[in-house]
Design a protein that fits this description.
This protein is an all-alpha fold. It is built from three helices and no strands. It starts with 13 loop residues before the first helix and ends in a 14-residue tail after the last helix.
Amino acid sequence: MSNDPIIEHAPRSWTQRLGAILWPSFFAAGVMTMVFFAFVDPLDLRDISFPNLDAEIGRGFGYTICFFMFWAATASSSLFTWILLRPASRFNTPLKDD
């Protein structure tokens, strides 16, 4: 094992962490919403999902709900990626020689 020093980077602020998770997921959710609704009408989706709610859910509300569902899915993906890419040196300590 080499004796090279481990370079520790300063931890990122919460604003940078949230931005790194939420901004790419926001962008991906927007693209997914556009592609999805290019083929699916929100009113048809409403009729399949909630056949008894005719007047309560309109197109705009359908777009909004679907966008936030896509955003939650892509944000969770970004969050899990961030968790997996954290530097191990911050959490693991070397084993002591006996």
